[in-house]
């Protein structure tokens, strides 16, 4: 699997751009194994992401614009996932990744 920065162009259909924090929803399946969300942070601060409403196993990852994974939440089964991190200004990618089966999800981004 490519990093978010590597497949940002190749898989643009899987990328959603958000300069705003908030709630998002999506569905992962055999044909759509991950969704990337692009987030621009204007000033240093505390960031959190949570993934809920899972019908099957999924993971949550935070990447920087250089393709380095900064954090990951990968609990077994349908348990909610969460990431908390202090971030500097810049561009980041949140990846919601299918681990098994088809699942809907709700992603909440707070700062």
Q: Any key phrases for this structure?
A:
single chain, mainly beta, five-stranded mixed β-sheet, four-stranded antiparallel β-sheet, 1 helix, elongated
Tell me what you see in this structure.
Helices cover 4% and strands 57% of the residues. It has one helix at 4-7, and strands at residues 15-18, 22-28, 34-41, 45-52, 58-64, 69-73, 81-87, 90-98, 103-110. The strands form two sheets. The chain has a five-stranded mixed beta sheet, with no helix packed on it. Strands 2-9-4-7 form a four-stranded antiparallel beta sheet, with no helix packed on it. It starts with a helix and ends with a strand. The model is unreliable at 6-15 (pLDDT under 50).
Brief summary:
The chain has 111 residues and is mainly beta.
Global morphology: elongated
In terms of DSSP E residues, the strand content is over 45%
Number of helices: 1
Distance between termini? 28 Å
Write down the overall mean pLDDT: 85
Specify the biggest β-sheet.
5 strands, mixed
Helix content: under 10%
Low-confidence stretches: 6-15
Question: What is the number of strand segments?
Answer: 9
- Structural class category: mainly beta
The order of strands across the largest sheet is 1-3-8-5-6
The rounded Rg comes to 13 Å
Order of helices and strands: HEEEEEEEEE
Could you give the topology of this structure?
Blueprint: H1 4-7, E1 15-18, E2 22-28, E3 34-41, E4 45-52, E5 58-64, E6 69-73, E7 81-87, E8 90-98, E9 103-110
Parallel strand pairs: 1-3
Antiparallel strand pairs: 2-9, 3-8, 4-7, 4-9, 5-6, 5-8
């Amino acid at each position: 699997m490519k990093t978010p920065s590597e497949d940002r162009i190749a898989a643009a259909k899987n990328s959603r751009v958000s300069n705003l924090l908030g709630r998002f929803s999506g569905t992962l399946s055999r044909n759509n194994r991950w969704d990337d969300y692009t987030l621009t942070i204007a000033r240093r601060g505390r960031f959190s992401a949570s993934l809920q409403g899972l019908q099957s196993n999924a993971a949550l990852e935070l990447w920087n614009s250089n393709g380095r994974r900064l954090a990951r939440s990968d609990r077994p089964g349908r348990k909610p996932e969460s990431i908390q991190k202090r971030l500097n200004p810049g561009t980041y990618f949140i990846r919601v990744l299918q681990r098994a089966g088809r699942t809907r999800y709700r992603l909440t981004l707070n700062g």
